[in-house]
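Sorry to interrupt, but I need a hand with the structure work. I would like you to pick a protein and set down its sequence and fold. Please put the record directly below this note.
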Amino acid sequence: MQRDVRMSRLRKFLLDNLPLESRRKLLENVVYTTIPANKYIFREGQDADHICVIQKGKVKLSHVDANGRESIIMLLSENDTIWESLFLYEGKFPYSAVTLTETRLCRIYRENFIHILDNPEAALEIVTLLSRKLHDANARNQLLATQDPTARVAGFLLYHMDRSTDDVLHYKLEEIASSIGLRPETVSRRLSALQEQGLVKREGRGKLCVLDAPGLQKLFGSEEFEN
């Protein structure tokens, strides 16, 4: 049963459209690990020698500047992947990955992955996946370019709601603030205002429920995010 669950999540990333032989070779060397909360998966500057598929849990990608200030690049959850650096940045991770909750990961190492690119169908699937990642990055840039703080918070909620398998979003104020370039107190005030309008409900520390997605979309004022 556990293996079936793992396989279903891995298929969401890559397997469904791979040729049978490429799929078999890839699965022979998949590594599953469970990492406690608040632990590094990898650190910025380490060799990007593997792909991570998040099976369960939440992960932040972050960068620390020369003054020790952390900026959150992205917040990831179930079925998200970390893998673009396998082909970019001279093979180094340009950010650190830290677990926010206990996290189950599937790791696919470079030497077991690269050989599937010899198959044209597999290579085309990789190009498609990279294109989706680019679209996702454009959506995040669109969010950060939004000037109004309320709209930016609304966009954050929409972005993560569309990518969540849970009805409740689990993010602390500090995590939201750092990922969208606002102060925690600003995020708190905006969330309170959204709750007063009946658009969201705060269900305790770090728990948010979206009640009215169309209402948030109206505030955000642009096309809906797409997976």
In short: The two ends are 28 Å apart (CA to CA). DSSP finds eight helices and eleven strands in the chain. Confidence is low (pLDDT under 50) at residues 1-11, 223-227.
